[in-house]
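Notes from the 1:1 (GR / supervisor)

We went over the backlog. Supervisor wanted to see one worked example end to end before approving the batch request, so GR pasted a single chain during the call. The sequence is below; no edits were made to it. Supervisor asked that the structure be written out right there so they could see what the output format looks like.
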Amino acid sequence: MLREIKDVRQIPEEGFRRWFRDDEFDLIVFYPSSDSEEIIAFQLCYRKDGQERVLTWRRRGGHSHNRVDDGEVTFHNKMTPILVADGIFHKEEVLNRFRAAAHHLDRKLMGFIEQSIHSLTNTPL
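Structure output shown during the call:
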């Protein structure tokens, strides 16, 4: 079940962010300011137990879908994790699992994320 992390570090140029997490998901939601309800971006990280993926939506730019390269497979020192292109987004699977984890979130926030996911097709992003 997603729970909000309090006292999240804020970076002024990125807007105000809220962060929710559980064992399966991280959801980071960006707003223009702390008193705004307008969502300007979000990142939904899933499959945190291995082969982590990230669905990103930006008001200016739309959706992208990436895999997290954790930097573990190197010949030298561990590298910083980075996002790399990933193929097909399996929306029904992610949507169903998200609904189960987010059922207690604010209805407006949950509805916005669900609608965004639902608008996608099972094709490469």
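Supervisor's comment: The longest strand covers residues 62-69.
Batch request approved.
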